[in-house]
Amino acid sequence: MTKDEIIKAVTSGVSKGARFVSFLYKAKGSGESAIYTINMGVDLSTAYQTDLEKLQANLDSLGGYEHQACGEMIASIHNSLTQHATGEKNTAYKLKDTYENIGKAIRLTKETGDLQIYGFVVNKQVLVEGEHKQVKSSQKTLAKKKLKRDMKSAKFRPFIVTPEHISGIRMNGDVLEIHS
């Protein structure tokens, strides 16, 4: 399938709402291979609103780094919701000029032309463990990671659609074969 055919299939697939999609994906950095099931076309603002309510409800019960991390996350989600309402990105989003959205749940990387699909990860079945480098995070970063475990918006992620990363996509009962 060509890039244009994939774009057409994905955009028509999610045009009437969210769709479950599954594929085998090999991660770029770690080499991990996993079967993912994602929900494409889901409204990220709804997830942000749910996460915001959850964080606000927990803020007063937290102390130290967790309280600080939660406060910063609340401010960031407020920023995202405000910006999304006007069609913009969070003002702190560092990659805002990196992508060109070409449809619901699909975008191009401007510099490389790589096609990406994105959505909420519903399931991940690891087939081959990857090598993940050790990262030394600050206490506040660790607190944010802990809070994100229960956040819907943290399950939203992109996937590069190239033969090196995705061997095929199953969507709406159809199989989209990815070829270079």
Explain this structure to me?
This protein is α+β, with helices and mostly antiparallel strands and 180 residues long. Helices cover 33% and strands 30% of the residues. Helix 2 packs antiparallel against helix 3 and helix 3 (64-85) packs across helix 4 (139-148). It is globular. The mean pLDDT is 84.
Tell me the β content: 25-35%
Give the structural class: alpha+beta
List the uncertain runs: none
Mean pLDDT: 84
What fraction, in percent, of the residue positions are helical? 25-40%
Discrete helix count: 4
Shape: globular
Total domain units: 1
Total DSSP E strands? 8
What is the succession of H and E elements?
Answer: HEEHHEEEHEEE
Structural Rg: 18 Å
The N- to C-terminal Cα distance equals 8 Å
Largest sheet, if any? 8 strands, antiparallel
Keywords:
single chain; 180 residues; alpha+beta; eight-stranded antiparallel beta sheet
